[in-house]
Write a structure and sequence with these properties.
It contains 6 helices and 9 strands; from the N terminus they run H-H-E-E-E-E-E-E-H-E-E-E-H-H-H. It starts with a helix and ends with a helix. The chain is an alpha/beta fold and 228 residues long.
């Protein structure tokens, strides 16, 4: 290999490194318009970035919310998108393997190693129904609007037999998110928010709750107590 060839290869590598670093820098800056770069899970942050890169206004997106539904009990919501047709509530999952489940079941199944290993996990449809119920109660009187549930599966998983999904609930992969949002907008009429600023402030408060270490710690303990 000649000196010139070696130089070209080195310069190419340097340019690629610089370009990748610049892209990551821009992504972090864009993400910060909605959330902290360390807030939530990597998959949740990828969802937020995905929405932003598809020109969803940052002011309409809320990430990692803690909504109080009972005294010292909170529902942790991955993401909320306030739209002209209602409120979209996202539940983000990350799994590998095959995923089986029906909307009415308590638990879904993850299958690994070609069927040799199976794990159960709480039905994300029902999980997000609980989140929406808590949020609907919190926004009662200021946002009596439709709520839409969207469950997004990240990771190397395949939805093999997922059925019985309720109306206004959608289950899919990251690549499906924008099509789901478009479908929600196309199939539903515009709504009126009784108090838009009240909605924004309530959602901002829920996001702020996630910065309270006492609330987060109590929420984790409540989950542990529930699954014992």
């Amino acid at each position: 290999m000649t000196v010139i060839s070696t130089t070209i290869i080195i310069l190419t590598i340097i340019i690629v490194i610089i370009c990748n670093g610049y892209v990551r820098y821009k992504d972090r800056a864009l993400l910060r318009t909605v959330t902290n770069n360390r807030r939530g899970t990597p998959s949740e942050r990828r969802l937020i970035l995905h929405l932003l890169k598809h020109n969803i206004p940052a002011v309409t997106i809320f990430h990692d919310l803690y909504v109080e539904h009972q005294k010292v009990r909170y529902s942790q919501i991955d993401a909320v998108f306030v739209t002209r047709v209602g409120i979209i509530v996202f539940e983000v999952k990350e799994y590998s393997g095959w995923i089986f489940g029906k909307g009415y079941q308590n638990y879904w199944t993850q299958v690994l190693a070609y069927g040799k290993k199976k794990n159960r996990f709480y039905n994300p449809v029902r999980q997000n129904e609980g989140h929406i119920d808590a949020l609907r109660k919190r926004l009662k009187g200021i946002a009596d609007v439709p709520f839409y549930s969207v469950i997004v599966f990240y990771g190397k998983c395949r939805l093999r037999n997922v059925s019985g999904i309720p109306y206004d609930t959608y289950v899919g992969y990251p690549r499906d998110v924008m099509a789901i949002i478009a479908r929600i907008h196309e199939n539903n009429p515009p709504v009126s928010y009784a108090d838009k600023w009240g909605v924004v402030n309530a959602l901002k408060d829920a996001v702020s709750n996630g910065e309270n270490k006492t609330i987060v710690k109590q929420h984790i303990q409540n989950i542990r107590n529930y699954i014992r």
